[in-house]
Structures are given as C-alpha cells and as structure tokens.
Design goal:
Helix content is about 25%, strand content about 25%. It is globular and about 45 Å long. It is α/β, with parallel strands linked by helices and about 220 residues long. The chain has a nine-stranded mixed beta sheet. It has one domain (about 1-210): Alpha-Beta Barrel (TIM Barrel), CATH 3.20.20.140.
Length: about 220
C-alpha cells in the first residue's frame, strides 16, 4: 500500500490552497491507496472525514486523520515540527516535544519528525528538529521530502538508522501538483489508525520519492 502521510488542505491550514475533494480525486487518480490529513495544529474529526468521504463516494481511498504540531521548550525555543497519528484530539502547537510525546504515546499513537533536515533559506540551521531528533522520543522521521537536497536526505537516513526508527516519505503538499511527490510504501494492508501506528512502530514500510535530487 502506498500512502502520502503529510498533506495540508485549505479546510484548516491557511497556508494551503489544496481543496480536500480535489485532493482525494488527485490521490486516487495517481494510484495512491491512502492519504493523511496533517493540518497545522488541528486534527480532522471523524465526522469531518465522514463528510469528505460522502462527497467522494467514487473513491475507495483510505483517509487518515493526523496533525502537524510545532513544538517549543519551556524557554520558548523552537524544537521542530512533528507529525502525530493516533491521538484523538487536536494538540495545537505550543507544547514541548517531550510533553507531546508523552501524551501521544499514552494513547498508543506515534510521533514523527517532519522534514527535520530541511534547510533554511539562509543556509543556516534547519526548518525542523535537525539534530534534536537524537534527543527526542520519536517513532520515525521523514527521510524523503520534496525540499530535501542530497545532504538533507543523507542526514535523515543516518538518523533513521542510528535511532532504529521508521523513515517515511511524504509530500508535505500544500497544492494539487505536490500530492504524491514523496510517499510511503507499507508492506502490509492497513485498515485503520491502529494498523497505521503499528506499521510505523514496527518499521514495516519504506520511503519513496519521485523527486529528482538536485546535482
């Protein structure tokens, strides 16, 4: 099964122009088996997803509710952005990664570093957790991301291997053309959030990308 695990829509992410119905139709058309809705600080409710499914009855796409949370330590220092699956409510974007991990793991969910080694435009530092991934209780991190250059991808893969955690691929799509640029292939059939979280914890997956790395 091939799933894009990091997508923002204009329903809840002000930075996105991606219509949810158009998203589902595009994902189905390009052969994805599922998508994850990971809005900034907001989790789609089960009722919201049921309404979306009703609008695209022709699609059998799996739609997983997730969330992207920005975390800050108690001094206000940015710790990174993290994808959350398996937590039943919106978490917002003000907790520390330590508190977020405790909450999510307490519900049986998983926490993954979003684009931890995506470089800032200034060339200094990362628009993500960076080397902080080595200090946090994570279940995985993005090893394939459209904004990675070869060095970023290498750093992400090294962290995945060293920490023995899952490496996922995801598009971080904010527009229609970006859907499916990077994705995750799961070795087993997924049916619900519990099976998604289990596959991530057990690393029964591999990251994939259709993006050509810059020379």
């Amino acid at each position: 099964m091939v799933i894009d695990l990091h997508i923002h829509t204009n329903r809840y992410s002000g930075c996105s122009n991606l219509d949810p119905v158009a998203l589902v139709r595009k994902a189905s058309r390009i052969g994805l088996d599922g998508i994850a809705l990971t809005e900034h600080g907001i989790r789609w409710s089960d009722e919201d997803i049921a309404v979306l499914r009703d609008r695209v009855k022709e699609s059998h796409l799996l739609i997983f509710p997730g969330e992207e949370a920005a975390c800050y330590d108690r001094s206000g220092r940015f710790q990174g952005e993290f994808l959350v699956f398996g937590y039943p409510r919106s978490l917002g974007s003000s907790r520390s990664i330590e508190d977020l991990s405790d909450l999510v793991h307490g519900e049986g969910g998983v926490v993954l570093a979003a684009h931890p080694f995506k470089k800032r435009k200034t060339g200094e530092g990362f628009y993500g957790a960076g080397y902080g991934v080595y200090d946090y209780a994570l279940d995985g991190l993005e090893t394939e991301h459209p904004s990675y250059d070869p060095e970023s991808a290498s750093l992400a893969r090294a962290a995945m291997t060293s920490l023995n955690i899952a490496g996922i691929g995801s598009s971080d799509a904010h527009d229609l053309r970006s859907v499916g640029l990077c994705m995750t292939r799961f070795f087993d059939a997924l049916t619900d959030l519990a099976s998604l979280c289990r596959a991530i914890r057990e690393r029964r997956l591999e990251a994939q990308s259709s993006v050509k790395s810059p020379a």
